[in-house]
Amino acid sequence: MKTVAIDGYGIEHVRLTELPDLEPGPGEVVVRIRAAALNRLDLWTLSGDLKIEHDFPHVLGADGAGEIASVGEGVKGLKGGVPVLINPGLSCGSCEFCRAGEQSLCPTFSVLGEHRPGTLAELVKVPASNVFPFPQHLSFGEAAALGLTAITAYRMLFPRARFKPGEWILITGIGGGLALALLMLSRPVAGRLFVTSSSQDKIDRALAMGADAGVNYREEDIGKSIKHLTAKRGVDVVADSAGGPALEHSLRALAKGGRVVIAGATAGGSAEINVRRLFWSQLQIIGSTMGSNEDVANMLRMVAGARLRPVVDRTYSLTDAAEALRYLESGKQFGKVVIEVP
Ligand SMILES: [Zn+2]
């Protein structure tokens, strides 16, 4: 099978690599990938910064959608040809958290393409519990584009931040895959929806997708601007994937009793906050990572019911994957970068 793999760390080590075809083990399925989607995670994996010991060549890619190619012993309810998307979160299945249905709390939780061979390939092997039939209004590329970001966004909003219909929300850093998934899933229920970006163009595009207002954080103070836009009230929820010093801005944008939910730290791992504001306004800071199998199923039901579509920025072919990764690295994208697999 054709794959996109690294034989060392650095984008110059990304190569189209021929590897042996895969056979499913007991409880596993092999998916014939029709489309994959890129994530920042792929850039971190190939940089070597994650300090994981990879067996080279290592196949990249967390997100993918395709058709079941073969099923292993003991797999029930799935057969060849069924279109599915892959949940890239891998867990042990037997610890206390897995047994409670909280797979992303599993101590051995890992992600396809990060620790194990990924989806930038003609074939990928995963546990049968990691594949889900996807809504019929989506193409393979759109299904792949839901993947990691839509699963993460769903868990952030609903199980973790307990976002309620009519509440007001601020989504930071609009334009990336996760922020746009947050916009897609919160817009149908949000009372008011605000975004931030350093790019006026990205704010304008978010307004066209239904955001009520945007704040350019290069030019304006987020806390002050949101208070101004909400007649001093603030928002009920801030959904953030930047972390770092911006946390204090997020807290200042909150209404009394508000929650900030964080699923990333692209802007840094440490933050200083005003503890008096935290307790006096009864705020909550909530962490969230990926999602459980239940979160995936609930996200897909919402996407099907509201006929939602993820934003796909550009589509590349498998042979141009290195160019696609460079484009992702540039940060110019608005939405997901998809790789079509012939
Ligand atoms: Zn577990």
Account of the 3D structure:
The protein has helices at residues 40-47, 96-99, 140-160, 177-186, 200-208, 222-229, 246-252, 275-280, 293-305, 321-330, and strands spanning 2-6, 14-18, 28-37, 58-59, 63-71, 83-86, 89-90, 110-111, 123-127, 131-133, 168-171, 192-197, 213-216, 235-240, 254-262, 284-287, 312-317, 336-340. The protein folds into two domains: 2-151 and 291-340, Medium-chain alcohol dehydrogenases, catalytic domain (Quinone Oxidoreductase, Chain A, domain 1); 162-287, 3-Layer(aba) Sandwich (Rossmann fold), CATH 3.40.50.720. The strands form four sheets. Strands 3, 5, 6, 9, 10, 17 and 18 form a seven-stranded mixed β-sheet that branches. Strands 13-12-11-14-15-16 form a six-stranded parallel β-sheet, with helices on both faces. It is α/β, with parallel strands linked by helices. The N and C termini lie close together (11 Å). The chain contains ten helices and 18 strands. It is globular, with a radius of gyration of 20 Å. Zinc ion (ZN) is lined by residues 91-92, 95, 97-98, 106, 108.
Short structural summary:
The chain has helices at residues 40-47, 96-99, 140-160, 177-186, 200-208, 222-229, 246-252, 275-280, 293-305, 321-330; strands spanning 2-6, 14-18, 28-37, 58-59, 63-71, 83-86, 89-90, 110-111, 123-127, 131-133, 168-171, 192-197, 213-216, 235-240, 254-262, 284-287, 312-317, 336-340. Strands 3, 5, 6, 9, 10, 17 and 18 form a 7-stranded mixed β-sheet that branches. Strands 13-12-11-14-15-16 form a 6-stranded parallel β-sheet, sandwiched between helices. The chain has a 3-stranded antiparallel β-sheet with strand order 2-1-4, with no helix packed on it.
